Amino acid sequence: MSEFLAMGGYAFYVWGSYGVAAIAIVVEIVSVRARRRAAARLAAATRPEQPK
Prior knowledge:
The chain has two helices and no strands. The protein is mostly helical.
């Protein structure tokens, strides 16, 4: 198992790449959620009032 995790001497590069990719995915998900919430707030604020 430790040989697999060592990746033939390239462990730092391989696991570092996985880490950077995982962080990028998390940042993208958080960013998309924030932009979606902001767009929903803007749409609600600019929506004309409904006649009663």
